[in-house]
Amino acid sequence: MFKIDEKSGSISFKLTSEMKLVDNVIRESQRFLKQCGISEFSGFKLVLRELLNNAIEHGNYNITERLARCRIEHISDKRFKITVQDEGKGFDYDELVMTLPEDPRRIRNRGYALVNAFSDQIDFNDRGNRVSVYITFIEETIYKVMKKDEWQIIIPSGDLTAATADNFRIRLIEMLDKGHSRYRFDFTHVADIDSVSLSVLIIFARTLSSKEDQGELEVVNMNSDLQELFHMTRMDRLYNIVSLT
Amino acid sequence: MIVKKHIFLVEDELHLRLTLSLILRKAGFLVTAAEDGSKALKQLQELKSRSEKVDLLVTDIQMPGLTGMQIIDGIKKMALEIPCLVITGYGSKDIVIELMRMGCSEYLDKPFEPEEFLKRVNIVLEKEEHKKAERDKQVKEFEYEKSEIKREVEAYKQNFEKLREQVDLAVGAYKNLVDINEESCKIPIAYHYKPFSELGGDFMDIRDSETGCDILVADVAGHDMGASYHAVLVKVLFDENCRLGCDGQAFFKHLNTQLIEHGKHKRMVTALFLRLNLHAMKGEIVTAGHPPPICVYPDNPEPELYDTKGNVLGIFSDAVFGYRQFDISPGQRFFLYTDGVTNACRVDGPTGKKQKLKGNGLDSTLKRYHFLSLNEVIHHTWQDVFSFCRYKPTDDMLLLGMEIPGA
Fold it and tell me: Which pTM value belongs to this model?
C-alpha cells in the first residue's frame, strides 16, 4: 500500500513495509522539493532513504502489513523537516553513535552518523519509533559587486569560510587587476568569518597598499562578534570599520 | 574445411519440398526439411538442444496446421535467431508488411524460377553475414574500450593508493607533532585535539625549562597539508627557542619573521605562549591574536580570562604582541584552546538559528566540572563541546589543561 497526501507546504506518505516503496517516496519527495525551489537533492535523499530503511527494516522488522509514515514539511525558505514513524517497539537512541568512523574506507555503521552529518538536528519521541530531522539547504556564498561613486561595494551573500575562500580571493584579485582602489565590504549577510577568509582579507589589504597609493578599505554593517574579531587580530588597522546607523 | 550452411525448409507440398531441397543441396547447402509447422518446431527444438545451428529458415506461408507466421513466432518464443525467407502464394501487400514487421528478411512470390530462389537465399545469407560482421566489430570495439577503461581504473586505483599512503604518513606525522607525553612534564597536563579533516593546523607543545615549563598553543589558518607544514615550522622554532631560552616576546618576533619569509603562501597564525616559573611562582603569557587562556583557582569555580591583545603572526612584519605577567599558586589551573572550540556551533532545528558555544559556553562548562580532577575536566568538557556542535566540528579543535603542582 502506498498513499500520498499533499497539502501546501507539506507532503505525507503512508506505506506498507516494502523496500521497493521507498523509491516511490524518494521520487515524490524530489518532485515536492523541486516545487519548493530545491534542485540539489543528494544529501536530503540520503537522509530520507536512511530513515525509511531504518523504519522498515529495524522498526517494522520487514513485516509487510506494518505501516511506515513519513511527512516532509517545508518550514521556511531553504529549511525542511522530515518525520518518519514506524510501528515497531522503538529503540534506545541514546546509544547511537553520531560520529563517522575515522577511517573513511570503513563503510559499515554509518547510518545515523550520515543522517547527522547532513542535518541540523535529530529528535526522537520517548519510545524511539518516531524521528524528526531538520535539514537546511546551504547555498554557496556568492559575492555581489556594485559600484557607487568611486567605491566598489562587495556584498557577500553569506558566511566567509574556508570552503568559499578561493572564490572570494579570485573575485578580489579580478577587481585589483582592474585598478580599483576603493573597496567597501558590506557584511550585512555575514555572521561568521573563519581564519582562512580572514587571511584572504589581510592579504588583499596588503596587496592593495603595495599597488595603490590611494587605496581605501571599509567594512560596513558588521556584527559585534566580527568587530571583536577585527579588533583582536588588529584587522581594524587595515579596514576602516564604519557604523552606518 | 568449409562448413556447409544449414537451411531449414518447411513446405507442405511434397513435390515442391523435394524440388527445393534438391536445388539447395546441389548448391552446396545442408538441408533439413519438414512437411508442417508443428513438426518443424519440434525438429528445431531438437537441433537447438544439440546446439546445431540453423542459418536460414525457408517456409511457405500458407500451410495446413501452423502458418509460416506462426512458425516464425514459435521460433522467436524459443529464443532462436534465424533469418527467414518466406514463400508467399499471393503476394498480398498486407501479408508482406506483416512479415517485415515480424523481422522476416525476404519473401518470394509463387511461382518462381530456381535461379530466382537461389538468388534470394544467397541475398539473405549475405545480409546475415554482413550483420554478423558488424556485430563482431562492435563487440570487439566494446571489448577494447572495456579493457581501456579497466586499465585506467587500475591506474587511478594505484595512484589513489599511493596518495592515500602519503596522506597516512602525513597524518601520522601530524599526530606525532601534536601528541605530548603527559607523564614527561614537570606539571600535570591533559588534552584533547581533533583536526577538522585528517590533517590540521592546530598545534601545541610543552617543554620543561630549568625553572618550570614553556607551553605553546598555535592555530594555523586552514586545515590542509599546507597548514600542517606551517605547524611543523612553528614546532621547529619552538624547539629552538626552548633550547636558547629566549623570552616569549623574542620568540614571537622571530617566529613572525620566519613565517613571513618561509611561508610561501601567506597564512595567518594565531598563538599563545605561556611560561611558568615554578620556583618564583610566576607566570607570563604572550599572545598573537589567539583566544585568551582561562584560569581557574581551586577554591573558586568562577573562571577568569587572562585577556591580552596582540597581532596575528605571519602577516605584519611590524606585529606587536600582547604580554601579561601574573603570580601563580598551587592547584591553579590554566586552560588553553584554539578558536575551533569556542566557535563550535550548531543550527537549532525548529528555528534555524545558528548557535555558537562562545567563550561563555566554554567557561560555564569548565565551571560545571570544577570539582573534578584535571583529566576528568578536560574529558567531560571535550565531550560537552562535541555534543554541543552535534559531533560536527567546523574547524580544528584543541583543548589543553594544566595544573600548578604542590596543592
Answer: 0.73
